[in-house]
Amino acid sequence: ALALDDYVFCEIGSLQNLDNQGNSGYWEGQGVLIPETGLINPAELTVGNNEVYFITEFGCVNPVSIELLAFAEAVIDNIEDSYCFQDTNYIVDLSPAAGTFMIDGNVSAPQINPSELGFGNHELEYIVGFGECEDRQSVYIAVSAAISGDAYALRDTLCPNESTSIFVDTQGGADDIVAIWSPGLGFGKSHFISPAQSTTYNVTLSD
Question: Which of 157, 95, 154 has its CA nearest to residue 126?
Fold first, then answer.
């Protein structure tokens, strides 16, 4: 028997030529279009294992295996367009399984952490299959800037019965930033205060 190559084709692939490696004869089998040259149409084969045959000029039959791969579309799911800058892991749904997931061109586990990605735009890409059966999908997400703030008072030292105002200037975030002051002041980026004793005011920011 001749040592002829086996093949792997894609079900949506282009016409292919089978190599007789210089031997005289012809090809036969499912999908063979031109027996003399070995031109074959993968679309006429069935997904999985197939056999075609090279018949030598002396009538010897040489089987050749062709594996036909099914085309599968790469899908990235369960992703939002934008994320807050926070240390949280989000699982990315990928299908079909066993592809290659990348973040900004680097191979990654199928999850994202906005604080690790950092502020800005990022590309998520999933690649499945190979050759003519390769498919890929890209999704772009945005991570907002980290929330920060500077708190200050018009006067930081008061005498008894005196008043002042406290403020917080905020930066970053994905939406309008909410400021909550303690102790007991509630919402707002500024408050008018008249403390009866020395008091430390804390502000928590969220969007």
Answer: 95
Weakly modelled stretches of the chain, pLDDT under 70:
174
* Phi-psi domain of 44 (left: phi exceeds 0; alpha: psi -120 through 50; beta: other): alpha
DSSP secondary structure string for all residues of 111-134: EE-HHHH-SEEEEEEEEES-GGG-
pLDDT tens column, 131-172:
999 999 999 999 999 898 999 999 888 988 899 999 999 988
Contacts for 9 with CB less than 8 Å, ≥ 6 apart = 16, 42, 45, 66, 67, 68, 69, 132
Collapsed DSSP state (helix, strand, coil) of residue 192: strand
Residue 129, token pair as written in the block:
């299959």
Which residue pairs, CB below 8 angstroms and at least 24 apart, start in 89-92? Answer: 89/113, 90/114, 92/124
Q: Is 195 exposed, middle or buried (0-12, 13-18, 19+ CB in 10 A)?
A: middle
Check residue 57 and report its DSSP letter.
Answer: T
What distance in Å separates the CA atoms of residue 207 and residue 175, rounded to the nearest whole number? 6
